Amino acid sequence: MKSVIALLGALLLMGCQKGGFESGENDPKSPWWQIGFVEPNYMKIWVEDSSVLDINNRMFFRVGGKSAPGGEPEDGTESARGWGTVGGSGVLVTGADLPRMIFVRWQSISEQKTYKGFIEIPEEARRLMVQSTHQRCAKTPERTARYSATLLVGLAPGGVLQAWVRDSCHRPIKVSHAQGELEPLGPEQGKHGGRYAYPVSEKAKRYIDKFGIPYGSW
């Protein structure tokens, strides 16, 4: 909590120096932050496990949801390249201070492979998380600040992890990138006969047959 107070103090000082920004200090806010997952178009994922290490070195297990918002637009474009529109909300990590590291084990449905990996959350990301609930968006100062900070973790084929936090104007800001590894035991660590949560959808098959999986674009 001392780290949170220090971050907030720095933020308020910065605001005073700039002058004229609308403080959200007294706006309603949650004591906890949210974690959510992101997937590229057609590249469906299923999260088997997710854990958070906070800045006080406490572990919180199975913190997020199992799925992520995604799309299969069939618009003739290579829409799986890059992350597209980073959207979605998340699940509150009740009891946790700001995040230091996230662990995820997930199924990459489009590949029928399972990955696991860690992604570190830098100090700048934590500063933005605090700012998002303590400072109103400069474009809409009449609106209250965000009720809770949000951390989004993108999961892509090849074992790619990408993290964003939402700023005070709800925009996703890229803060970290990491490379996971294959889970040698397969889906659900060898349970359920190696079956995946979903088969590859017909739309995803058509997309992959035409464009392939765009490794290196995430």
Plain-language structure description:
- The protein is of the alpha+beta class and 218 residues long.
- The protein has one domain (23-211).
- The chain has helices spanning 2-18, 123-134, 202-211; strands spanning 34-38, 45-54, 59-61, 91-92, 99-108, 113-120, 150-156, 160-166, 172-179, 181-182.
- Helix 1 (2-18) crosses helix 2 (123-134).
- The longest helix is centred in the N-terminal third of the chain and has 17 residues, at 2-18.
- The radius of gyration is 19 Å and the shape is globular.
- It starts with a helix and ends in a 7-residue tail after the last helix.
- 38% of the residues are buried.
- Mean pLDDT is 91; it is low at 9-20.
Give a short synopsis of this structure.
This protein has helices at residues 2-18, 123-134, 202-211; strands spanning 34-38, 45-54, 59-61, 91-92, 99-108, 113-120, 150-156, 160-166, 172-179, 181-182. It is an alpha+beta fold. It has one domain (23-211).
Provide the descriptors you would attach to this structure in a database record.
alpha+beta; five-stranded mixed sheet; 3 helices
